[in-house]
């Protein structure tokens, strides 16, 4: 006996099997021809000076980018350690005046960072 239901009931899942022919020799030949075509296109693009270069060139650019990020990170860590150390010494020497300067300097720093004042092109 079916009652009116406000929820959607799930339907049975159907299994569709479509058999296909697989030839490993033809598959390997197709992969090899695609690889050769890509190498030829890469060689043409390299000779013209445009387009994608080999995967080795892309990988080396990725490592260079990661290395520059590490340099920026290490510089930022050293900068923060120096700033915090200087603040601690200034707080011990000048007291609450150093805290007041820090309260005004932090928003100025974030404002300048938002508008890329410290970035060089």
Secondary structure elements and pairings:
Elements: H1 24-48, H2 55-94, H3 96-114
Please describe what this structure looks like:
The protein is an all-alpha fold and 121 residues long. The chain has a domain at 68-121. Helices cover 69% and strands 0% of the residues. The protein contains three helices and no strands. The chain has helices at residues 24-48, 55-94, 96-114. The longest helix is centred in the middle third of the chain and has 40 residues, at 55-94. The protein is flat and about 85 Å long. The chain starts with 23 loop residues before the first helix and ends in a 7-residue tail after the last helix. The model has no long low-confidence stretch (mean pLDDT 77).
Brief rundown of the structure:
69% of the residues lie in helices and 0% in strands.
List keywords for this structure.
single chain, 121 residues, mainly alpha, 3 helices, 69% helix, 0% strand, flat
Helical/strand content category: mainly alpha
Tally the helices: what do you get?
3
**SSE string:** HHH
Q: What best-fitting shape do the alpha-carbon axes yield?
A: flat
End-to-end distance, in Å? 75 Å
Give the % helix. Answer: 55-70%
Q: Indicate the proportion of strand residues.
A: under 5%
